[in-house]
Design goal:
homodimer; 463 residues; alpha/beta; FAD/NAD(P)-binding domain; 3 domains; six-stranded mixed sheet; 15 helices; 21 strands; globular; Kynurenine 3-monooxygenase (chains A, B); NADP (chains A, B); flavoprotein (chains A, B); FAD/NAD-bd_sf (chains A, B); monooxygenase (chains A, B)
């Protein structure tokens, strides 16, 4: 293997060591990771006049034959839409997205029922392809003269204090680069964060859940969807569940989430088919037995991790955004949306023209509680989604929430505040607590009144 | 700098690739870190017949002129003593240790008062020098033919799956080594744990507290201690505190713990002396003004971190013990004791002659809840120690606990169960909860009885 060190001239600014000190001048910003959050961040930094280098360890997703290792569709909601709108890309993305108006629940007998997300104002989630969305964002990067994309650049080391990084390309060349600010948008296993974790005072936790997931597929049939397209399909089975989101090519991507212990019990084709016949009776013919067996045993179930940390920055030298800062389990559909909202909030703070270290500190301070809250909510929603079989209590609450929301617009149900508003996540949680308390008080009062009325009637009869 | 790769023959066993599979045969065990837990672990692995290589990045502490970077004395209690007794070293260590029978509290006016740890059976903590204790343990390693010590070997990389490690010596030579089992006893910032953190399913958290600490010294005077020697001295000041432990050379090592914000306000000699005159009036002349100024400004306050993780092992290939597995804030004096207890428990499990992967899994399973519990207790005790100024409630509870403990030996107060017994830490906590509930119930019942009696008397008078 050829090995060499290539010193990369970063947008022609490498010769200006004093750049960071000159607050009036724009900076050399290195964004590590050209996924959804990274490419959106690059656009925003560039629009503010910075010189942006965008590094990605994979090949250009626009040229990739197969996009591996990540779920291929995602639920875009309010926070993601707002971030896209801010850079003029919302309409372009929604044009090819598939609206999902509610959950379609599949019971063990194959019966389905629908729970709309928002029966009042008909707001919905949008199923978008990761690849399409990433392409739109990268195309927008290409149109900006001050963004330079570097694909197949894998970060191998970084010195945040000095703003220096080393990458390797597929030839194993070592590529050295420098920047005034390093922005890690490099996902749950972020290399930039790995440097932050070593700094004293950096709080960090990674928590794996005992559940693994596998992706399967319900292909299109005769050029059409095999199930109603405008829903997020759920097969809740208490300790495990399956969901399906529609794709543009009229297939569905199916995600099976189960404890590793349950996965381990399915050892061969017979186990698998028996398991599906028992639990996902209606989905089995749609997936197809042969394809199911092939896809199920092709890869091992993947782990799911929830990551919280604080702070998100180091002085005026480094910053992490998106999954690098707050990876969450995927059960609230907020991972991408929260990451994109990071960019919206950061841009808002940077536009105040504070000193950069102060601006980054303000970002951490204003963001960490909300990031922790959505990580916790995602974990909580995992239990709720699996348990939708106990759905009468869920439906009664849903009905009550919808009713109250209609007549008292300030009664925003939790799911709506998270998915269809930009209310800070922590406030969504506080809001829900307040609603729970009120409902509890009302029901206790009602119960007491009923008892008192009963006693009154009883006394009148017998005294 | 000279660089080369030296392949290290590990106790002549490197040529036996099948060693790990042969359960009857003893293993090549690499213990990384020759501190208190590492050297104790090496002794135990060697006594079970394994070939042990003990690697330490510092020089041999027995030859070191100055031991840097770690607190120089420690409070040895029951769990540490038990672990030392198991390898026949307890008496040797206690011979030079200084018993501490209780806390001596210093108030702001300089008045002192004593709270004994165990007024009933006079159990006490022992102040031991880190260096002396480490020397005793390393000397014991030297006496075992199957332990080989490698000082100035800094772990730079490890492949746990393959059992391979790379070290660097001060000449920057790369030294390659192999082992069947790698045991990380390399402290809170463990390099072995760094490998575990990357494995899917490894839960990890590091939490820094907002408090920093600095070490100061009360030297001996005319060949004697300047304060009563047989106590752990505490200056509790609510949001901060100072403690002092006696050393063999008749000095005291003083540890000042304060929020970083308070440290930051002390910018010069005048600030410092004013601060000490106000808060540690009686300690100031003992430390000496000049020495205080010198020591205080010599180093920056150190961070304190609490680390929890799970599991502690990887298959039959790697294991972490002590601070590497559960670093805690130092306020329960259990860091070293818990680490040594790890070794006791592990040895007990290994002696059952299970398959190694099963034995290590059993160690994780039987240890993590207790490790989490002592990390939490240490955090909780930090608040208790600082707040001892509110000491009437503390003393009343202490008095009640002592009384109950005397007449009902099963009523073991929390501090005693942690420091003077081998009760699993989690059980110590459960025990305390049960005691709290009982006391609460008794006091509510007493209060009710008093009210009823009052009502009865009142009725008799007025009806």
């Amino acid at each position: 293997m050829r090995q060499g060190i290539i010193s990369q001239e970063v947008n022609g600014h490498q010769e200006s060591p004093g750049a960071a000190e000159d607050e009036g001048r724009r900076r050399r910003v290195a964004v590590v990771g050209a996924g959804l959050v990274g490419s959106l961040a690059a656009i925003n930094f560039a629009r503010m006049g910075n010189q942006v280098d965008l590094y990605e360890y994979r090949e250009d997703i626009r040229q990739a034959l197969v996009v591996q290792g990540r779920s291929i569709n995602l639920a875009l909601s309010q926070r993601g839409r707002k971030a896209l709108a801010a850079v003029g890309l919302e309409e372009k993305v929604l044009a090819t997205a598939i609206p999902m108006r509610g959950r379609m629940l599949h019971d063990v007998r194959g019966n389905t029922s629908v729970v709309l997300y928002d029966p009042n104002s008909k707001q919905c989630l949008y199923s978008v392809g990761r690849r399409q969305l990433n392409e739109v964002l990268l195309d927008a990067c290409d149109k900006l003269p001050n963004v330079r994309c570097h694909f197949e650049h894998k970060l191998t080391s970084a010195n945040l204090r000095e703003g220096s990084m080393e990458f390797r390309n597929p030839n194993q060349d070592v590529i050295a680069a420098k920047a005034d600010l390093i922005v890690g948008c490099d996902g749950a296993f972020s290399g930039v964060r790995q440097q932050l974790v070593r700094l004293p005072g950096f709080n960090y936790s990674q928590e794996y859940i005992d559940t693994g997931y596998l992706e399967l597929c319900i292909p299109s049939k005769s050029g059409d969807f095999q199930m109603p397209a405008n829903y997020l399909h759920i097969w809740p089975r208490n300790s495990f569940m399956m969901i399906a989101l529609p794709n543009q090519d009229k297939s569905f991507t199916v995600t099976l989430s189960m404890p590793f212990g349950v996965f381990a019990k399915i050892r061969n084709q017979n186990d698998l088919l028996d398991f599906f016949k028992l639990n996902f009776h209606d989905a089995l013919p749609l997936i197809g037995e042969q394809q199911l067996v092939k896809d199920f045993f092709k890869t091992r179930p993947q782990h799911l991790v929830s990551i919280k940390c604080k702070p998100y920055h180091y002085a005026d030298k480094a910053l992490i955004l998106g999954d690098a800062a707050h990876a969450m389990v995927p059960y609230y559909g907020q991972g991408m949306n929260a990451g994109m909202e990071d960019v919206t909030l950061l841009t808002g703070i940077l536009e105040k023209e504070l000193r950069l270290d102060e601006a980054l500190a303000q970002f951490t301070e204003s963001r960490w509680q909300d990031a922790f809250a959505i990580c916790d909510l995602a974990m909580y929603n995992y239990v709720e989604m699996r348990d939708l079989t106990k759905r009468w209590s869920f439906r009664i609450r849903k009905w009550l929430d919808t009713l109250l929301f209609r007549y008292f617009p300030s009664w925003i149900p939790l799911y709506n505040s998270v998915s269809f508003s930009s209310m800070p996540y922590a406030q969504c949680v506080a809001n829900r607590k307040w609603q729970d308390q009120l409902l509890k008080r009302v029901s206790v009062t009602t119960l007491l009144a009923a008892i008192l009325a009963g006693v009154a009637i009883f006394s009148q009869r017998f005294i």
